[in-house]
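For the sake of clarity, the format in which proteins appear in this thesis is described at this point. The fold follows as a row of integers, each naming the local backbone shape at the matching residue. One such record is shown here in full, so that the layout can be seen directly:
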Amino acid sequence: MNTKAIIAIILILLIVTFTMQNTEVVTIKLLTFDISMSLVLVILGCFLLGLLSGVLLSYRKRSKNKIEKV
């Protein structure tokens, strides 16, 4: 396995461990909305949003570099 795969596995294990230890219900307030949900869902949702943002920005940068090279 390469270094990136090992780091990814360690990161996933840390996130799973952290979320399993934080299972209480929390209230999220955004403007006029109040949503009660498990803290695990909030943590995983934020992680997935960050992951998706990073992938999209990386894809955009790669696409931009390909256009400039042509």
